[in-house]
Amino acid sequence: MNAAEKKVLLVGATGEIGGLAARQIAGYGAATALAGRDPERLRARGAALGGRPRRGFDAYDLDGCARLAPWAREALGGLDAVVVAVGVAAFGASADVSDAAAEHLFTVNTLCPMAVVRGALPALPRGGVVVVVTGEIVDRPPLGMADYAATKTALATWLRVTGREARRDGITLLDARPPHLNTGFTTRAVAGSPPAPGSGADPEEAVRHHVVLPLLRALEG
Ligand SMILES: NC(=O)c1ccc[n+]([C@@H]2O[C@H](COP(=O)([O-])OP(=O)(O)OC[C@H]3O[C@@H](n4cnc5c(N)ncnc54)[C@H](OP(=O)(O)O)[C@@H]3O)[C@@H](O)[C@H]2O)c1
């Protein structure tokens, strides 16, 4: 598969999934622009890919989230696709999760990706593609993760409807639902701790299978 001359924005490029997707997509020949929160990791990831355009953002700045795709189009001289891999976990019985944690989860996992996509739709041409990482949890929500599952399920529903609307403009929205992966994601939870250190799938292979190859196939039309 060849993505030469394609221009792709990675939102959450400082994370494990976003970082792997950026490297793999660049490996297929695409030009990438990187957006992330941690400035040092963002700089390092850009440098590792030969010096890519990069931009910092925080999920709480929804206007800033919406401006990422227009920025990338300017920085890359066009834009064909956007990948969104931003998120944070929380654990605990519903009664024990604070409203503050729930608000944080919905902001990072739901409102931020929605704002990124809202900003991306007018910035993409016909044939453009957006991939948003939700997760297998949408189909199989476990006990002790109601709030996290709810943020992802809300996002998945929004993507489903928005995807039907975007189809009219020739834009494809994909909802990527990888299983639990060994990225250390659960260790960075904003509340509670994971029930048992269950082993996850190999991130490299899962990112290729759930994110990168579907993106490239959709770009090929
Ligand atoms: N790992 C899994 O098992 C798994 C499975 C299915 C789906 N997912 C989903 O995949 C996505 C990425 O997960 P991952 O495993 O790559 O986790 P990760 O390495 O922890 O990456 C999380 C990403 O979200 C960003 N982020 C967190 N809070 C933010 C905020 N307030 N503002 C802006 N960015 C923020 C992080 O930015 P910084 O690093 O710059 O702080 C990082 O880029 C998440 O949506 C997750 O729900 C993960």
What does this entry look like structurally?
The two termini are 13 Å apart. The chain has seven helices and six strands. The chain has 221 residues and is of the alpha/beta class. It has a single domain, classed as 3-Layer(aba) Sandwich (Rossmann fold), CATH 3.40.50. A six-stranded parallel beta sheet has the order 3-2-1-4-5-6, sandwiched between helices. 44% of the residues lie in helices and 13% in strands. The structure holds NADP nicotinamide-adenine-dinucleotide phosphate. NADP nicotinamide-adenine-dinucleotide phosphate binds next to helix 1.
Name the features.
binds NADP nicotinamide-adenine-dinucleotide phosphate, 44% helix, 13% strand, 221 residues, globular, 6-stranded parallel beta sheet
Radius of gyration: 16 Å
Number of domains: 1
CATH topology: Rossmann fold
Order of strands side by side in the largest beta sheet?
A: 3-2-1-4-5-6
What ligands are attached or bound here? NADP nicotinamide-adenine-dinucleotide phosphate
Q: Outline, from the CA principal axes?
A: globular
Secondary structure category: alpha/beta
**Count of DSSP H/I helices:** 7
CATH class group: Alpha Beta
- Report the helical percentage: 40-55%
Portion of residues in beta strands equals 5-15%
Largest sheet: 6 strands, parallel
DSSP summary, beta strand count: 6
Mean pLDDT: 97
Can you tell me the residue ranges where pLDDT is under 50 for at least 5 consecutive residues? Answer: none
Order of helices and strands: EHEHEHHEHEHEH
Identify the CATH homologous superfamily. NAD(P)-binding Rossmann-like Domain
